[in-house]
Each structure stands twice: as structure tokens, then as C-alpha cells.
UniProtKB/TrEMBL annotation:
<dbReference type="InterPro" id="IPR007793">
    <property type="entry name" value="DivIVA_fam"/>
</dbReference>
<comment type="similarity">
    <text>Belongs to the DivIVA family.</text>
</comment>
<dbReference type="GO" id="GO:0051301">
    <property type="term" value="P:cell division"/>
</dbReference>
<keyword id="KW-0131">Cell cycle</keyword>
<protein>
    <submittedName>
        <fullName>Cell division protein DivIVA</fullName>
    </submittedName>
</protein>
<feature type="coiled-coil region">
    <location>
        <begin position="29"/>
        <end position="149"/>
    </location>
</feature>
<keyword id="KW-0132">Cell division</keyword>
<keyword id="KW-0963">Cytoplasm</keyword>
<keyword id="KW-0175">Coiled coil</keyword>
<dbReference type="Pfam" id="PF05103">
    <property type="entry name" value="DivIVA"/>
</dbReference>
<dbReference type="InterPro" id="IPR019933">
    <property type="entry name" value="DivIVA_domain"/>
</dbReference>
């Protein structure tokens, strides 16, 4: 601003023959200077407010950028955790399937062993019965011969 309140307050005007009344001009210029001072102060206050608000906007933009980066990082971590959980679930599923197959194989082998054992016991029973029957028939034959004699 090229004109200050002090310039207005102390402005001198040449006087002529019937010129302006100096006191009226001085009073008017004093009021104009007061109004200009108030406007200059208000203007400075508004500039300071603008500066403060611009700093706040810059700080908020920076915080927004950090928040966006944090959100992106959180989303990335969430995707990685989900993928890892899916891999672990698949691994657990495969391990459970393998364990099930192992248990089924062992159960089949145990069933086969028990069936073989049952078959062996049946054969031993049949052999025992045949031998016992033969022994009893031999005794009966001996008894018949003794009765006939």
C-alpha cells in the first residue's frame, strides 16, 4: 500500500484565497487515518489468520497423506494375513487328509490281521475237532472191541 494512515494524518495542502478550513480538513483526515489504521490492522489480522489456516490445511493434508498410507499398509497387511491364513488352512486340511488316510490304512491292516487270526483260529479249531473226534472214535472202537471180546 503506497498510502499509510500517517501519510493521511500529516498531509499538508497548499492554501489559497478562500481555501478549506484547516481544522475541518485536519479533523476529516484524522478520521480517515483512524479508519485506515483499523482497516490495516484488520487486514494484518486476516493475513495472519489466512497464514494460520494455510498452515493448518498443510498439516491436515500431510496427516491425510499419512492416513492414506496407513490405510494402504493396513489393507496390504490384511491381504497378506488372509493369504497366509488360507495357506495355513490348506496345509492343515492336507495334513488332516493325510492323517485320515494313515488311520484308514492302519485300520485296514489291523482288520486284515484280525481276519487272518480268525481264520487261523478256525483252522486250529477244525484241526482240534478232527483230532479229538478221531481220538474219541479210536476210544469207541477200542470199547467195541473190548465188548465183543
Amino acid at each position: 500500500m503506497d498510502l499509510t494512515p500517517l501519510d493521511v494524518r500529516y498531509q499538508e495542502f497548499p492554501t489559497g484565497l478562500r481555501g478549506y478550513q484547516k481544522e475541518a480538513v485536519r479533523g476529516y483526515l484524522a478520521r480517515v487515518a483512524e479508519v485506515m489504521e483499523a482497516l490495516v490492522q484488520e487486514n494484518e489480522a486476516l493475513r495472519e489468520r489466512v497464514r494460520t489456516l494455510e498452515e493448518e490445511v498443510a498439516r491436515l493434508k500431510e496427516a491425510e497423506g499419512e492416513l492414506k498410507r496407513a490405510v494402504v499398509a493396513a489393507e496390504k497387511i490384511a491381504r497378506e494375513l488372509k493369504a497366509q491364513a488360507e495357506r495355513e488352512a490348506e496345509l492343515i486340511k492336507k495334513e488332516a487328509h493325510a492323517a485320515k488316510e494313515q488311520v484308514l490304512r492302519e485300520a485296514a491292516e489291523e482288520l486284515k490281521r484280525i481276519r487272518a487270526e480268525v481264520e487261523r483260529v478256525k483252522q486250529e479249531k477244525a484241526l482240534f475237532l478232527a483230532q479229538f473226534k478221531g481220538l474219541l472214535e479210536g476210544y469207541l472202537e477200542s470199547l467195541r472191541r473190548l465188548e465183543e471180546a
